[in-house]
Every structure is written in structure tokens, then in C-alpha cells.
Design a protein that fits this description.
about 20% strand; 9-stranded mixed beta sheet; two-stranded antiparallel ribbon
Length: about 290
């Protein structure tokens, strides 16, 4: 099995592995980051900020993290610069979580770490839908000659799903002409805001959903500490509308990626990301 780095558990996530329904796992890999690296430090930084900066209780869901069986497994010990080995290690551990009947909640790392998690989810749920909240399409076929990259990850996800019709790209505001042409033809594209997506969400009522949140989906005034910030973006209340709408759906796993904590010396990006992740955990844990 892949090597594990024990961490101080995310605040409020005190269940043992055996009793847990939701399992947090850190996948701090950023070996293909093309602009501002550093997301490999996010899993550890996120837990440290959550310990001191927030309560376990969510007034949005009126629940406490300690009300649920959530276990923090720690971080995968991933080889920097060895993306194939890193992706294989992630996939192996996620396969174990699914085999054990757990819902994975993955902390990246760059967005490429989503690929092996989605591959394992698709293996178990053949009709899986992926909901991507992101500033970028990530639909390039190659980036700097590489087919496996944070900028190509959703193109690879389309291949894993076998169709772009089950990839919902929400609040997108950046990409090449070619990427937008591909998205309009092949994927479910909801640019700039979440409003139109929320209108469609009831159609996915009985469908297994994987939620992938790239933190650059938020306005960079809220989270400047990310690898590729983009002008515009959503704010926290709009994001909470999405999570609350997903409560009545079958979300089977999720990830949060692209926090680069060292870029933001104020620590605000990490503090905000910890609160965002708390609400994501709540949504995943509530049956």
C-alpha cells in the first residue's frame, strides 16, 4: 500500500477509520503546476488553520462535524516530480477506501490529482456524473507536450467517463478558443455563475455525483492563494447554495484542489479554504 504521513486530524473529524463513513485524505502533489506552484503544501496547512481558526459547528447546515463519523487518514507520501507514481499511489489508496465502503474527501494538490479518484469512482459507479466548479475548463489535450497535467485533467476525465455529457463545468470563466469550442460541443457548460446549473441539478436527483472544487472558482479577492487566479468568480454565499442543493443528491466523493498557501502570506486563503472544506464535509456526511 502507499506510504502514509500521519497528520493532526482536521478539526472535529474524530471517528476511527473502522467506524467512519467519510474519510479525508491528503494528496499534496503539484508536479505539473504551470504558473504558481505550492499546492502540495495545502493538506497540512489546511488542517493547521482549521485547528485554530474555526468551530466544528456549521450555522449553514446547523450541524457539527462531531455529529458525523468522519476520519482523517492523513496524507499520501507522494514523490515530487514523479506524476505517474503519484497518480498510481492515489488511485491505489482511493480504491481501498471505496472497497471499504467509505466516501473519499480528498485535499489536493493540483487539479490533476482528481483524475485517479474519478477513475476509481467511475469503476464503481458506471453512470457517474462529475460536477466541476472551476475558473478554468482544463480541457486542453496537451499542455507543454504533456497529456497528464492540471490543464488537461478534464479532457482526460471525459475519456474516463466515455462522454462529456456527464461532465458539468460550472462557473467557468477562462480557457482557450479551442477548449470553449470543445466544451460547447461535448460537455455540460455553465459559465460565469452557478445559477443555470442549479436549475438543471434536479435532473441529477438519482445519479451518483463526484464534486470537484478548484478554489480558483472563487473571486481572487477571497482566495488569492491559488496557482492560477482569474478575475471575477463566485463568492461564498453562492457556493453554499450549490452545497445545499446537493444535499438531496447522491454525492459519493469530492475533492478540493489548488490551494497554494505560501502565496498568500496573510493566511486568509487557507482560513477561507478550511471553512469551505468544513461545509463540503458536512454536505458529504449528511445522509
Amino acid at each position: 500500500m502507499p506510504e502514509r504521513i500521519p497528520r493532526q486530524p482536521f478539526e472535529g473529524c474524530i471517528a476511527t477509520y473502522a467506524e467512519a463513513n467519510v474519510v479525508i485524505i491528503g494528496a499534496g502533489f503539484d508536479g505539473t503546476s504551470s504558473y504558481r506552484p505550492g499546492s502540495r503544501f495545502a493538506p497540512q496547512a489546511l488542517r493547521a488553520e482549521a485547528l485554530y481558526s474555526q468551530e466544528n459547528y456549521s450555522p449553514y447546515f446547523q450541524q457539527d462535524l462531531t455529529d458525523f463519523k468522519i476520519h482523517d487518514w492523513g496524507d499520501l507520501d507522494l514523490p515530487f516530480g514523479e506524476k505517474h507514481r503519484a497518480l498510481a499511489a492515489i488511485q491505489q489508496q482511493i480504491r481501498q477506501l471505496f472497497t471499504d465502503g467509505k466516501k473519499p474527501a480528498v485535499i489536493g494538490g493540483e487539479h490533476l490529482i482528481s483524475l485517479p479518484v474519478i477513475e476509481e469512482a467511475q469503476r464503481i459507479y458506471p453512470n457517474l456524473v462529475v460536477v466541476q466548479l472551476d475558473a478554468h475548463l482544463d480541457l486542453m489535450d496537451e499542455l507543454f507536450g504533456e497529456r497528464l497535467s492540471h490543464g488537461t485533467v478534464m479532457r482526460r476525465v471525459v475519456e474516463v467517463l466515455g462522454t462529456g455529457e456527464r461532465l458539468y463545468q460550472v462557473a467557468i470563466r477562462s480557457g482557450s478558443r479551442e477548449e470553449f469550442a470543445f466544451a460547447r460541443k461535448h460537455t455540460q457548460l455553465y459559465p460565469f455563475t452557478t445559477r443555470e446549473f442549479l436549475k438543471h441539478l434536479p435532473a441529477l436527483k438519482d445519479t451518483p455525483i463526484y464534486l470537484s472544487v478548484d478554489l480558483d472558482v472563487f473571486d481572487p479577492s477571497l482566495i488569492p492563494g491559488t496557482g492560477t487566479p482569474e478575475a471575477g468568480g463566485i463568492f461564498f454565499p453562492e457556493f453554499m447554495e450549490v452545497l445545499k442543493a446537493l444535499l438531496s443528491h447522491q454525492v459519493i466523493a469530492l475533492d478540493m484542489v489548488e490551494l497554494s498557501p505560501k502565496i498568500d502570506p496573510t493566511g486568509n486563503s487557507t482560513i477561507h479554504a478550511a471553512k469551505i472544506f468544513r461545509e463540503m464535509l458536512m454536505m458529504l456526511a449528511i445522509d
